[in-house]
C-alpha cells in the first residue's frame, strides 16, 4: 500500500509545481498560461519546463506569463516578451529560422561526413596491396644471431 501511495505521489509531482496562489481565476486564461508554460524552459533546471519546475526562477517566469496574459497579450506576444528578456534559450523547442539552421543542420551534416569518410577509408584499405613478407636480409639475420647468442 505504501508503495502505491509513493508511486502516485511521484507521478503527480509535476502537478505540484504550479502553486495555488499562482492560479488565475479565469479558467481560460489559466489554461493558456499552462500551455505557454509547457513550452518555456526553466533556466535553472535546463530541460524541464517552467510548468513542471519548482525552482524560484521558474515560479517568477510562470507569474510573468500570467501577468502578461492578464494584461491582454496574445500567446505569441507573451512568449516574445519572455524571449526578448531571457533569450531564445528559454524556448524548449527553438525556432527553425536564422542562425538556428546551422544548429539544426550540423548534426545530420556531421553524420553524413563521418559516413562518407568511413566509406572512403574502407575503399582505400581494400584497394591497397597487402604487405609482403620478404624475410630478413643477411645483415639483419647476422645481427639477430648475435643478439640471440648473448
From TrEMBL:
Belongs to the CcmH/CycL/Ccl2/NrfF family. One of its GO terms (biological process) is cytochrome complex assembly. InterPro entries: C-type_cytochrome_biogenesis, CcmH/CycL/Ccl2/NrfF_N, CcmH/CycL/NrfF/Ccl2_sf. PANTHER family: CYTOCHROME C-TYPE BIOGENESIS PROTEIN CCMH. One of its GO terms (molecular function) is metal ion binding. It comes from the Bacteria. This is Cytochrome c-type biogenesis protein. GO terms for cellular component: plasma membrane. Residues 1-17 form the signal peptide. Residues 6-148 form the CcmH/CycL/Ccl2/NrfF N-terminal domain. Keywords: Cytochrome c-type biogenesis, Heme, Iron, Membrane, Metal-binding, Signal, Transmembrane, Transmembrane helix. The chain crosses the membrane at residues 101-122. It holds the Pfam family CcmH. Possible subunit of a heme lyase. It comes from Sulfitobacter donghicola DSW-25 = KCTC 12864 = JCM 14565.
Amino acid at each position: 500500500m505504501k508503495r502505491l501511495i509513493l508511486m502516485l505521489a511521484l507521478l503527480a509531482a509535476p502537478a505540484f509545481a504550479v502553486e495555488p496562489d499562482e492560479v488565475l481565476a479565469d479558467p481560460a486564461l489559466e489554461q493558456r498560461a499552462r500551455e505557454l508554460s509547457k513550452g518555456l524552459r526553466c533556466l535553472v533546471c535546463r530541460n524541464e519546463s517552467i510548468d513542471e519546475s519548482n525552482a524560484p526562477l521558474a515560479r517568477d517566469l510562470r507569474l510573468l506569463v500570467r501577468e502578461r496574459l492578464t494584461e491582454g497579450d496574445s500567446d505569441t506576444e507573451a512568449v516574445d516578451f519572455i524571449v526578448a528578456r531571457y533569450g531564445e534559450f528559454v524556448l524548449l523547442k527553438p525556432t527553425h529560422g536564422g542562425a538556428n539552421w546551422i544548429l539544426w543542420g550540423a548534426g545530420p551534416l556531421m553524420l553524413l561526413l563521418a559516413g562518407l569518410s568511413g566509406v572512403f577509408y574502407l575503399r582505400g584499405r581494400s584497394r591497397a596491396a597487402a604487405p609482403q613478407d620478404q624475410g630478413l636480409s643477411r645483415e639483419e639475420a647476422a645481427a639477430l644471431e648475435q643478439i640471440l647468442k648473448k
